[in-house]
Amino acid sequence: MPIVVLVVVLVAYAWAMIAYPGFRRAGALVGIAVTVALAAYFVMNEPEDTVAGRRIAPEELEIDEVTIQRTIRGATMSGRVLNRSSEYRLRDMTLSLRLRECGAGRESECPVIAEATAIARPEAPPGQLRPFSATFLYDSLPFPSETQHWEWSVIAVRATP
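Request: output the structure for the sequence above.
Response:
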């Protein structure tokens, strides 16, 4: 709806500029003033996505009871997350999950055989604990012939007041 209103206003503005020659000078000044004001607003205010990503650091989250279940095309990770922020609500977190194949005597050299990211949306208010789940899909997931080892990390967080 806001886009429709914007289009109607711009069409009316263009029509007034064409239909009323006396309005052209004042209309041009108003157009320039609005353009400068909008440019200043966008330069001075960061986008909400950028701000939302800095409100809670990944270190402020406490994740426990993590379980990872392998599926045909990937894995499902679930657990609980405690939002230790005293001010912001945790909306979602981007998780990274790697599957490594480790063999006996090669624990130091475990090659990554699959890696993916997924978003979990726990909706945890400040200071509260919530369950989460994320589904990871892999392009080509080989079946490990030896011991598999999962590694996960939180790579991004989005929060709102």
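The first strand starts at residue 61 and ends at 70.
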